[in-house]
Design a protein that fits this description.
5-stranded mixed beta sheet; 29% helix; 24% strand; Rossmann fold; alpha/beta; binds S-adenosylmethionine; single chain
């Protein structure tokens, strides 16, 4: 890791990072184009939080108020085939970047995660686990016609069936009070004052100084 960030940050064949710290380079770019500039087989682990395609004019409840679920054009479904092609495009780049034993984590909901899982299998990934990220603070279902959505799914997959992926069994067990870690994780909302959250807000503010038109209404 030592020297790697400096090397990447000053590499003339790569775009300049949008933001950086001691252990992070953050790029503001089309991820598929950006990934195409990095070397094949150079990445140990990827976490992707792609568009869920849930902006379908539905409603949800936020702070006791009825609000639209629409997040922006980037989250609107373009139809099953086009959505699938998009997933295949970015997953193909991810797979090219991964080392032989590398793994990828992808979060989603029923709107996109089955496409992701299918695309992974078509592309030759090996699905290792699907983690249920249980949200104890989920918003109530206003329509009263469905179960309340209270989880996301995170797929953990290895580059291929011959990958020997890393799994820190003992660490996971100790984090789970000496019992084997299961595939349902309860994760509440971030607590106020958590360092990463403050940092994220600061990055977001910098972003809006440059792209004020992208502020949410
Ligand atoms: C589910 S959100 C992820 C939010 C992020 N994890 C966060 O905490 O802010 C999906 C994000 O993907 C971005 N996005 C959509 N298409 C993209 C692309 N081709 N390249 C890079 N980002 C893209 C959207 O702008 C949106 O911010």
């Amino acid at each position: 890791m030592e020297g790697l960030l400096e090397r990447l940050a000053s590499d003339p064949s790569l775009p300049r990072p949008w933001w950086q710290s001691d252990c992070t380079l953050l790029y503001l770019a089309d991820s598929i184009l950006l990934m195409s500039k990095f070397a094949e087989g150079s990445v140990d682990c990827i976490f992707a939080d792609p568009p869920y395609r849930l902006s379908n004019n539905g409603i949800t409840c936020q702070n006791g108020k009825m609000v639209s679920v629409n997040k922006g054009e980037w989250d609107r479904s373009q139809g099953l085939d086009e959505d699938f092609q998009f997933v295949v495009s970015w997953l193909t780049e991810c797979r090219r970047l991964l080392k032989k034993d590398g793994t990828i984590w992808v979060s989603g909901t029923n709107h996109n995660i089955f496409l992701v899982g299918y695309a992974m299998q078509r592309l030759g990934f090996r699905i290792l686990n699907d983690i249920v990220w249980f949200k104890p603070n989920a918003a109530p279902n206003l329509s009263r016609r469905f179960f309340t959505h209270s989880h996301e799914i995170v797929i953990w997959a290895a580059k291929s069936s011959s990958s020997r992926h890393v799994f820190n069994y003992e660490l996971m067990r100790s984090l789970n009070r000496g019992r084997q870690m299961r595939s349902v994780w309860e994760i509440g909302p971030p607590q106020q004052g958590e360092g990463w959250q403050v940092e994220r807000v600061n990055i977001g503010l910098d972003y809006l100084k440059v792209f004020p038109d992208r502020a949410k209404p």
